[in-house]
Specification:
Elements lengths: L5 H17 L14 H9 L9 E8 L5 E5 L12 H12 L6 E6 L2 E2 L4 E3 L2 E4 L18 H11 L4 E2 L3 E4 L34 E7 L9 E5 L6 E9 L6 E5 L6 E9 L5 E6 L3 H15 L3 E2 L3 E4 L8 E7 L3 H11 L2 H16 L4 H14 L23 H11 L5 H6 L23 E8 L2 E9 L5 E9 L5 H16 L3
Parallel strand pairs: 5-7, 6-8, 7-15, 8-16, 11-13
Antiparallel strand pairs: 1-2, 1-20, 3-6, 3-17, 4-5, 9-10, 9-14, 12-13, 18-19, 19-20
Helix pairs in contact: 2-11, 3-6, 3-7, 3-8, 4-5, 6-7, 7-8
Length: 494
């Protein structure tokens, strides 16, 4: 028998591995042998006091080989917080890549007469685009509602002889995911989920102190709307006084009550609150934009989930961004409402059913095809805000390794926050070897912090990592500083 030189055997094996990688197969993890220098350094970080009562789950792998560099409790189920968004955004990226962007339309079955009157109701039809906002500079108008109103005016519309109806029947009637709390729904991060949403179903408030002591604070509302009733009880305090502002909104109420004080010459205050009845909120924004264009709506603004009437035709429309841009919003900003919207759209693509159950099922099928070990996990929503969600660091790194070999690998990676640069990592790891070299999704809930993504070492080595910490009781800063220290170690690896 002719012997094959060892060097040739090595390169033959390497070629096989490259071939497997090209079809998205995850290399079988190879356990690290013995406590090497990097492992000892990570162990030292994880002995910090903040981790003493906590559950710490870690999986770090070399992307080129699939070799496990470090692991601790990698297969243990833990709450992932917003790193759950990685599963949702990867699945929708594959499902919608190359597809058309969803368009929100203004439609009517009524006739547009020679006097510019629409003789019937006007429908604002939501199709699951959560990006009706001023977030994107490429829109022809800063607000998409101003664009729609302007387009209607240019089409000759002067008056609606009926109602303006917001339609959100595309999604199942599950506006509150399982495991969210009532308190979540008051704040911007817990905005309810509907097929028609605008400005993240959030109102942003800014307060500045008045000119003199005792003056009411100056209030700015964005977007400019009368949908919420702002009760401003914030007064201007003497120069140098301690400023404090409290915001309250009862669940389901449109009344936002602001109390407290801001010192003369001091900094202002800003905060965000979720808008109740998000479909009505979006429809009201269009009604206000129509008024600015001089278009009269005769009857009340309303919402509907009933089947749309026959004979509707579009009068105006506004397109959303492509899916790569949409998942950037989700992952860089950690946008819960958008993640939940994408989960329902995933179900719509897979089974023509825009429900949570259909979206979860479609996501699981995607993960199965990608070789992700998720069988013992429990995923109830798209964003990770659910306190019932459970997954493992191993499942997250399985996904990261698979997505590094996916046709949409670049779009997925580009959606992640960059250390010291943007997103939820913009203030972390600045002026360290990890700045600009860590691309990772953050996660945080009460007593939970997580980080999952990629690290590019200066040497050219690339790592996938997931670090999830549950049940810590110290300030989150202590946990995130330790996570960042691990990333700095990896970024400096030879």
């Amino acid at each position: 028998m002719k012997r094959v030189p060892r060097a040739r055997i090595f390169w033959m094996c390497a070629a096989v591995l490259v071939g497997l990688a090209s079809v998205g197969t995850i290399p079988a993890p190879v356990e690290a042998k013995g406590p090497d220098r990097l492992s000892r350094a990570i162990d030292a970080i994880l002995t910090r006091e903040v981790f003493t009562p906590a559950i710490v789950a870690v999986d770090i792998r070399d992307l080129a080989t699939g070799r496990v560099i470090y692991e601790r409790n990698a297969g243990l189920n833990v709450k992932p917080a917003s790193t759950m968004k990685l599963f949702t955004t990867a699945a929708i990226l594959e499902a919608e890549s190359g597809g058309k962007s969803a368009a929100t339309t203004v439609e009517t079955a009524g006739r547009l007469d020679g006097l510019g009157r629409v003789l019937g109701d006007l429908y604002l039809v939501g199709r699951g685009d959560p990006n009706l906002s001023d977030r994107f500079p490429w829109r022809s108008e800063k607000s998409p509602f101003d664009q729609l109103a302007r387009d209607l005016k240019e089409a000759g519309v002067t008056r609606i002889e009926g109602r303006l109806i917001g339609y959100d029947g595309l999604f199942s009637n599950e506006s509150i995911p399982d495991g969210w709390t009532a308190d979540d729904l008051v704040w911007s991060y817990g905005a309810e989920v509907t097929a028609l949403s605008a400005f993240d179903s959030t109102v942003r408030l800014k307060l500045l102190p008045g000119e003199r002591e005792g003056d009411p604070a100056v209030t700015t509302v964005e977007p400019a709307t009368g949908f919420l009733r702002i009760v401003n009880g914030v007064k201007t305090l003497p120069r140098g006084a301690a400023s404090e502002v409290t915001l309250t909104r009862e669940l389901g109420s449109r009344d936002v009550v602001l109390t407290g004080g801001l010192a003369v010459g001091g900094e202002g205050w800003s905060g965000s609150v979720a808008a109740p009845e998000p479909t009505l909120f979006a429809t009201t924004l269009l009604a206000e934009a129509l008024t600015r264009q001089g278009i009269v709506v005769r009857d009340a603004v309303a919402t509907s989930r009933e089947p749309l009437p026959q004979g509707l035709r579009p009068l105006a429309s506004v397109k959303g961004p492509g899916i790569a841009e949409q998942i950037k919003v989700v992952n860089k900003e950690s946008q819960n409402l958008h993640a939940e919207t994408l989960l329902r759209r995933l179900g719509l693509h897979a089974s023509n059913e825009a429900s949570v159950a259909a979206g979860v099922k479609a996501r699981e099928e995607f993960l199965r095809q990608m070789g992700v070990r998720f069988a013992d996990t429990a995923m109830y929503d798209g964003s990770g805000l659910s306190r019932s969600d459970l997954t493992s660091a191993r499942a997250e790194v399985d996904l990261l390794v698979a997505m590094a070999r996916h046709p949409q690998a670049a779009a997925f990676r580009d959606s992640l926050p960059i250390a010291g640069v943007d997103g939820t990592l913009r203030r972390r790891m600045k002026d360290t070897p990890a700045q600009g070299r860590v691309f990772a999704k953050t996660g945080s809930l009460r007593h939970v912090n997580a980080l999952a993504g990629y690290v590019d070492a200066a040497s050219g080595r690339r790592f996938a990592l997931s670090i999830i910490v549950n049940h810590h009781t110290r300030p989150s800063r202590e946990v995130t500083e330790a996570m960042d220290a691990i990333c700095v170690l990896l970024a400096g690896e030879p």
